[in-house]
Amino acid sequence: MINKLDKIIFELTQKELIRQQDGLEMIASENYTSENVLKLMGSILTNKYSEGYPGKRYYGGNEYIDQIENIAKNYAKKIFGVTHINVQPYSGSPANQAVYFALCQPGDKVMGMNLLFGGHLTHGWKVNFSGKFYESIQYTTDKDGFLDYDAIESMVKTEKPKLIFVGATAYSRIIDFEKLAQIAHSENAFLVADIAHIAGLVAAGVHPSPVGHADVITTTTHKTLRGPRGAMILCSGDESNPTKKVDDAIGWSESKHNIPSLIDRAVFPGLQGGPHNHTTAGIAQALYEVQSDEFVEYAKQIIKNAQTLANEFMNSGLKVITGGTDNHLILIDVTPFDITGSQAEHALELAGITVNKNAVPFDTRSPFDPSGIRIGTPALTTRGMKENEMILISEMIVRILKNHNNAEIIEKVKNEVKELCDKFPIYKDIIY
Ligand code: DSN
After folding, report:
1. What is the H or E stretch that residue 278 is in?
2. 312 pLDDT exceeds 90?
3. Is the CB of 29 inside a 6 Å radius of any atom of ligand 1?
4. What is the CA 334 to chain-centroid distance, rounded?
5. Ligand 1 pocket check for 92: Cβ under 6 Å
6. Is the pLDDT reported for residue 247 higher than 80?
7. Residue ranges of the domains in the chain?
8. 157 catalytic per annotation
9. Is ligand 1 within 6 A of the CB of residue 124?
10. CATH topology of domain 293-422
11. CA distance 45 to 224
12. What is the pLDDT of residue 429?
């Protein structure tokens, strides 16, 4: 074997570790996974091919991989209360792609939340496969940034989509999955809940679950769930009891199809080859951690931290979309401070605070330089930060936004950020 380091790659990884340690990571979709998950992600499990599913593989040598995948699935079934789970999608977008592939034909009408109002590319955005291969219609929020259930219902009744994606990347309020399921099912549409952002909150019981309402649920595993970069598809269909709705939807006459088997076949062999077994093991470890009391405390604290930040921002004169938050994120219109979303993202990055520019509902600016920023608390909460730290951080953010051209103030805040981060180390044993 070759035992020579590519020094540049290792040095860059070391620098990235220091960046993650010394800065405030406030991108709402990011987090710090545990050292045990990291160990499994860097393990020998990456060497193995396992196309297929436990007990039904296309390669030999899967005795231990089968056990790992089954443990991951069993943990997820227990945590979310579902009967069927697929842990093989490589990430969130491929998971969503598999759902379309399982339940729709090209050209079918699908409906999702507009990206510029907090949806996701794969929920039917025009340049994404979901907007190109399917006839996509998009719903927005109301003028205040809240989901408008009446408008959604009216669109469903008029347009009669076959499949509706709900779930968001920049929505700070509780999503009423029960109501959305009633709307979708009243027109015989499939409801797919993409809970990538809020999966950790749902798992901890601090956000209502879509289980029992949505036909299919997709999630990434690396956001609030705090696992490795990966995804899962969950459903509760009875595998021995095919439904006519599924047969009608996919255009097959024989009544022998059901959602779980269609999903499994869409993931493999429909879209993917061998699963990433190191990721599957990382998901199992993360789900093991989710079942602890500490995880529930972490999930509750994520929300308390976000609400503290939202209140502080509003007291400083910033416009928080919807006037607050029920979850892990806040969407802020920064233009009252005479600054754009891009300028805010850049100035905060110089001070060691990482956020992302984001459109706000009915934004009049371009998506490349929108009016807002999106801020999240999962990563800071994982570090152990609480309300007192949020008050300090909100003050630092406001100071930067008000003085984004002042290099001296940015440097001063950067030092304060480093001082705060030093008190909350992210890893003990990881050196790269
Ligand atoms: N990129 C993710 C986010 O930041 O929300 C969504 O896939």
Report:
1. helix 277-290
2. yes
3. yes
4. 24
5. yes
6. no
7. 38-290, 293-422
8. no
9. no
10. Aspartate Aminotransferase, domain 1 (3.90.1150)
11. 25
12. 77
Confidence of residue 237 (pLDDT cuts 50, 70, 90): low
| % of the chain at pLDDT higher than 70 | 95
The tokens of 166 are what? 């709900």
232 by DSSP, 3-state: which? strand
Distance 418 CA to ligand 1 centre (A): 26
- C-beta of residue 203 within 8 angstroms of C-beta of residue 294: no
pLDDT band at residue 243 using 50, 70 and 90 as cut-offs: low
Residues in CB range of 21: below 8 A, 6 or more apart: 421, 425, 426, 427
For the stretch 142-186, pLDDT in tens is 999 999 999 999 999 999 999 999 999 999 999 999 999 999 999
Q: Is there an atom of ligand 1 within 6 Å of 258 CB?
A: no
Structure tokens at 244: 């006519």
pLDDT of 248 higher than 60 = no
Counting from 1 in the atom list of ligand 1, the atom nearest the Cα of 356 is 4
1, two tokens: 């074997």
**CATH among 3.30.70.20, 1.20.1250.20, 3.40.640.10, 3.40.50.300 for 38-290:** 3.40.640.10
CA-nearest residue for atom 5, ligand 1, is 169
Q: Fold match between 38-290 and 293-422?
A: no
220 is annotated as an active-site residue: yes
254 has pLDDT over 70? no
Between the CA of 119 and the centroid of ligand 1 the distance, in Å, is 10
